[in-house]
Design a protein that fits this description.
The structure holds two protein chains of two kinds. Chain A folds into three domains: 120 residues; 81 residues, no CATH class; 58 residues, no CATH class. Chain A contains eleven helices and two strands. Chain A has a two-stranded antiparallel ribbon with strand order 1-2. In chain A, helix 2 packs antiparallel against helix 3, helix 2 crosses helix 5 and helix 3 packs antiparallel against helix 4. Chain B folds into two domains: 194 residues, no CATH class; 67 residues, no CATH class. Helix content of chain B is 74%, strand content 0%. The C terminus of chain B is likely disordered. The chains are: A mainly alpha, B mainly alpha. At the A-B interface, helix 2, helix 3, helix 4, helix 6 and helix 7 of A face helix 2, helix 3, helix 4, helix 6 and helix 7 of B.
């Protein structure tokens, strides 16, 4: 058994940054394609890591076990979660392959690897979704909307190309970080530099949402009638109190609903549609 | 009556399938799915009126402002909505507001189709297990990449094609008959307010209640300066500077706090967990 395992033909090959880049790009491409109810996007992670696993495990049984290990339930966000975790898994699998080959005690156990993955995937998805999809994407879109309103195709091309490039770059960055930090990557999110960046992006996100709400939420009252011969226009009165009162009330109303009932987006969407439709139908909005 | 040609309907249907299968450049489909802009542009190119297509798409984009999918679920599919709504609006010379009337229901239906895709992929996943068992590397690639892509094309292409080729002229007529009635006013109001959903969702997911002051600050700045035509880039720079100042001030006060016991005024923000 020992002799068999120390056969140089079965020795794991060295994993380089180039391999990690390739793994990330495979992840980036496969990402949501095989999304299923059963294990979400786990097949993409497996497909991403295949070339690395084949370099590491020259023995069929070990390779099969590694494939199955990376095919367990997995769901996260494309760049923050996907980047860090592809890099991290590359590093952990490398250690596992080394331990198996040298017949050492396996400290890099299946459980440790899965728990690391599961512990990071939700937390990173939350940050990644709100910062990337929620904020950065909409900064690009908000810049481009006025061009689109003027009939310019750049209004479509600019946010698509800009955001797609941003995502590839930031994803590759996180994959490299995850790989070089190895198991320490779990501490990556606690480092003050990363904490400050998340802080800054969260504030920028809040700020840009304010600008979007002020610029693009259009709610105004169309209520107008005569009071003893003098015209009364409700919106004019509201404007003398504070311009933009109604749109702000709508946004904060939906936010308040989430804080009370949880993130029920579809319900909020249907509810707001009904409220606005009724108020518009009776002539208040 | 004006209709789309078979070729036009097919190209748009193939585009929608490429986006919704998530196979067109993989991760880059994120914006293609969340935003109607590129789909609107493709419809404009196919129908030969890019400028008007962009104007209509911009008005659809406004109702989906801030929409993304926390945790993978999205209440509406902007790309599917734009494929149908922009085609209908160009076909029937409809106003952008009327296009919203088409986009909202179609977008909701689209989200059911997207869920159905997960259902199909669940079956394909069984074959991935078999391929892994046999260490069939080409088989893994087939079941992870090609079969799910093919399944999505088989799901989206026929449905979108039918909706465009036979459905679009009918929808255009119905909407045209509604123009000038209270229905259009209602849709205008609803369309104007729906952007609140995406924005409130983002604020909630960022999850920092104490940072609502930055939201309010930006809101009032943009309302006050509305007539000045301040660009989004300017606001983004301003926002970055304000955020940087805040981070600088708080991290400095954190570093200094063990030494200087007296200055409590700055350092009263909690250690926030995520």
């Amino acid at each position: 058994m020992t002799e068999h395992n120390l056969d140089p033909k079965l020795a794991p090959e060295e994993i380089t940054i180039k391999d990690v880049n390739k793994a990330y790009l495979r992840w980036h491409f496969a990402n949501e394609i095989p999304h299923s109810f059963e294990r979400y996007i786990a097949p993409s992670l497996l497909w991403a890591l295949m070339p690395i696993l084949r370099k590491l495990y020259k023995d069929d049984d070990s390779l099969r076990a590694a494939y199955q290990r990376q095919l367990l339930f997995f769901n996260t966000q494309l760049t923050w979660g996907g980047g860090v975790i592809t890099g991290l898994m590359s590093s952990m699998e490398q250690e596992r392959a080394r331990q198996e080959y040298n017949n050492e005690e396996i400290t890099m156990s299946d459980d440790l690897m899965y728990n690391t993955k599961a512990g990071l995937m939700g937390a990173l998805a939350g940050i990644g979704d709100s910062i990337d999809s929620g904020t950065v994407q909409y900064i690009f879109i908000a810049i481009a909307v006025p061009w689109a309103q003027n009939g310019n195709p750049m209004g479509a091309l600019f946010p698509f190309i800009g955001f797609a490039l941003y995502q590839v770059l930031i994803g590759l960055f996180f994959a490299r970080q995850g790989f070089t930090m190895g198991r320490n990557a779990t501490g990556l999110m606690q480092s003050s530099g990363v904490k400050n960046i998340i802080e800054l992006l969260s504030i920028l996100g809040m700020f840009m949402m304010g600008v979007l709400a002020g610029s693009y939420v259009k709610v105004s009252s169309s209520l107008a009638f005569d009071i003893s011969g003098r015209p009364f226009v409700l919106q004019d009165t509201l404007d003398t109190i504070m311009p933009g009162l109604l749109p702000l009330a709508v946004v904060l109303g939906v936010y308040y609903y989430y804080t009370k009932k949880g993130l029920k987006v579809t319900r909020a969407l249907v509810g707001l549609t009904i409220v606005l439709a009724v108020l518009a139908g009776v002539g208040i909005l | 009556m004006a209709t789309l040609t078979v070729f036009q309907s097919l190209i748009i249907a193939l585009w929608v399938a490429a986006v919704m299968s998530r196979s067109l450049l993989g991760g880059a489909t994120l914006t293609l799915r969340f935003s109607p802009l590129m789909t609107g542009l493709v419809v404009g190119i196919v129908m030969g009126d890019i400028a008007q297509a962009m104007v209509i798409t911009a008005s659809i984009q406004l109702i989906y402002m801030g929409v993304f999918s926390p945790g993978g679920t999205m209440p509406s599919e902007p790309a599917v909505a734009a494929a149908i709504a922009v085609s209908v609006a160009l076909l029937g010379n409809l106003s952008p507001e009327a296009a919203i009337a088409v986009a909202v229901p179609v977008g909701l239906l689209g989200s059911y189709l997207y869920q159905f895709r997960f259902f199909l992929n669940t079956f394909i996943g069984k074959r991935t297990d078999t391929a892994v068992e046999n260490l069939d590397h080409a088989g893994i690639t087939r079941t992870v990449i090609w079969y799910p892509t093919l399944a999505s094309f088989l799901l989206f292409v026929p449905l979108v094609f039918v909706a465009l080729f036979w459905g679009a002229p009918v929808i255009a007529d119905v909407i045209a008959a509604l123009e000038g009635t209270v229905v259009i006013h209602i849709l205008e109001v609803v369309g104007g307010g729906l952007a609140a959903i995406g924005i409130a969702t983002t604020i909630y997911v960022i999850g920092r209640k104490e940072y609502l002051i930055f939201f309010l600050l930006a809101y009032f700045l943009s309302v006050i300066f509305a007539s000045l035509g301040v660009t989004m880039v300017t606001y983004a720079i301003l926002g970055t500077l304000i955020a940087a100042m805040f981070v600088l001030a708080t991290s400095n006060s954190k570093n200094a706090s063990p030494a200087t016991t007296g200055s409590v005024d700055f350092g009263d923000d909690d250690d926030d967990d995520f």
